[in-house]
User: Fold RNA polymerase-binding protein RbpA from Rothia aeria F0474.
Amino acid sequence: MSDRSLRGMRLGSQSMETESNVQPAPRQRVEYRTADGDRVFVTFAAEAEIPQTWTAKSGKEAFLVNGDSGSSAEDEKPVRTHWDMLMERRSIEELEKTLEDRLQYYRSHFAIS
Assistant:
């Protein structure tokens, strides 16, 4: 019985078609970042709707980089610097007085002999 085995291709394992003259669908590569700074790249179809968040392989939530966050610039607060916050608590006169006091303290305690 073994001398009459069938020869041929396995079903479904190989295709008789070639990939010549085949154009892949247009794609876009999107970058996400986790809170730790890990970068995650995901490829979507060009016409696909891009989600704002993506779960990385590590299980952490990653956020879209350079994407529309969904909120307008009007809703966001302006960035406050350390100087801005200091100026909310002190006036220029108070700052000058504090500076002069500290300089006087350092000059009297750390004078080079």
The chain has two helices and four strands.
